[in-house]
Amino acid sequence: MATVVEQITEIVNRETHAWNTKDVELLLTIFHPDMVWPWPPTEYDHDPMDWTLVQGRFNYNRWRAGWQQLFDTHDLIHNRRVIQKIVVSKEGDGAFAVVDVDTLWMDKKGQKSHWKGRACKVYTKVGAEWKLIMHIGLLNYKSLKCQA
What we know:
The structure is a single chain. The protein is α+β, with helices and mostly antiparallel strands. It has helices at about 5-20, 25-30, 60-75; strands at about 40, 50-55, 75-90, 95-105, 110-125, 130-140. The radius of gyration is 16 Å and the shape is globular. The mean pLDDT is about 95.
């Protein structure tokens, strides 16, 4: 049986593979039914006062349509993801992965959409499998300066 760290690594890699292959069905396998995904407008918007909710709580059909629209209208130029750290709760029922992401999309008009920064992907154990329940990022933490 795989360790929890190996299981979390697998789900991060499955997500990466789904983006790489534009496989919306595979992508949807990672989400918890209660997933809500706030998103900062840029990698420098650390204050959640500026964040948005694009699709609301996970809804299979709505999220499938949204991601499929992205896949149908954009080419994936590159998708680099590096797991920096995985932390598991002492109870073994919660975990998070810190992942550095550099993903570049281009639409048919040549407009680029660059997802770049550090993500904190939070997972919860549901029965025998892990699901992504929360995602923070993508943010550039190198730009932060202590204000204290």
